[in-house]
């Protein structure tokens, strides 16, 4: 059995099993709960958890284990994500100021979108997103924007896998989803109408590199009661293009 491609019998595999045991909804986890989730022997788990605390990858507070701040610090050192955030943030903030709706920045990892940034205010929609969180590609506008431009191999991988139904409007028919992806490539924007959560609609656009590969994507999200994603398509597409152009200039300067 493997954890992230690692042998679970190895020390690193066991350490990764402990770290992956945490979910977005967790605060702290007891040793007993970690044992239930990982299946590791109590003595082994206690030793691995203690080493992770020493390495600052876990913290021990009030008798429970918490993910350590060093994980966040290391994540922020990832060069691509750091550069992407630095370049994208002014565009995300500008889009928010002009719309006062929730703005996301995300990247693709396997069959999921991972959210790198979220700009919102007191009117924020109840979208199931958080920084560092994940959602299926096929059920979100930002995910579909990434998937549409990702290439045929990635498309086939997603379309031949089970497509989870998140709401009654989630597209789970591979043929219909492929048609929509083709339309997204033509239009340069993707839409979501209550496909990840009821009452939420969204428009997204990919951030493309010089080879039209999606580096990331941005989206604008709002409640169906007041938000009309079609009317914001041009603004989202322009913001994505602006981020792409700035990234390209930075890359040229580094040569």
Largest sheet: 6 strands, antiparallel
Overall structural class, as computed from helix and strand content, comes to alpha+beta
Report strand order across the widest sheet: 7-6-5-10-9-8
Low-confidence regions: none
Beta-strand content estimate:
15-25%
Number of continuous helical runs = 9
Question: What is the residue-averaged pLDDT?
Answer: 88
Radius of gyration: 20 Å
* Helix content estimate: 40-55%
From the spread of the alpha carbons, the general shape counts as globular
Q: Which features does this protein show?
A:
single chain, 255 residues, alpha+beta, six-stranded antiparallel beta sheet, two-stranded antiparallel ribbon, 9 helices, 44% helix
What does this structure look like?
With about 260 residues, this protein is α+β, with helices and mostly antiparallel strands. It has helices at about 10-20, 30-40, 40-55, 70-75, 80-100, 140-150, 150-160, 175-185, 235-255, and strands at about 1-5, 5, 60, 65, 100-110, 110-120, 135, 190-195, 200-210, 215-225. A six-stranded antiparallel sheet has the order 7-6-5-10-9-8, sandwiched between helices. The chain has a two-stranded antiparallel ribbon with strand order 1-2. The protein has a two-stranded antiparallel sheet with strand order 3-4. β3 (about 60) and β4 (about 65) form a beta hairpin. α6 crosses α8 (about 175-185). The longest helix is centred in the last third of the chain and has 22 residues, at about 235-255. It is globular. About 35% of the residues are buried.
């Amino acid at each position: 059995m493997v954890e992230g491609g690692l042998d679970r019998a190895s020390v690193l595999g066991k350490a990764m099993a402990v770290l992956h045991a945490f979910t977005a909804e967790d605060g702290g986890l007891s040793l007993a709960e970690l044992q239930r989730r990982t299946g590791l022997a109590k003595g082994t788990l206690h030793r691995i958890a203690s080493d992770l605390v020493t390495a600052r990858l876990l913290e021990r507070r009030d008798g429970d284990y918490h993910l350590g701040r060093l994980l966040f610090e290391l994540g922020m050192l990832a060069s691509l994500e750091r550069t992407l955030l630095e370049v994208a943030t002014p565009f995300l903030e500008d889009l928010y100021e002009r719309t006062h709706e929730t703005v996301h920045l995300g990247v693709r990892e396997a069959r999921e979108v991972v959210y790198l940034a979220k700009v919102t205010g007191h009117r924020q929609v109840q979208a199931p997103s958080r920084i560092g969180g994940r959602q299926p590609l096929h059920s979100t506008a930002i995910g579909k924007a990434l998937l549409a431009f990702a290439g045929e191999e990635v498309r086939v991988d997603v379309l031949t896998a089970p497509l989870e139904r998140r709401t009654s409007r989630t597209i789970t028919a591979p043929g219909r989803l492929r048609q929509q992806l083709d339309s997204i490539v033509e239009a340069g924007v993707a839409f979501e109408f209550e496909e990840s959560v009821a009452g939420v609609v969204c428009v997204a656009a990919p951030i493309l590199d010089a080879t039209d590969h999606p580096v990331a994507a941005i989206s604008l999200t709002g409640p169906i009661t007041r938000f009309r994603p079609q009317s914001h398509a041009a603004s989202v597409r322009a913001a994505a293009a602006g981020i792409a152009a700035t990234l390209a200039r930075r890359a040229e300067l580094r040569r």
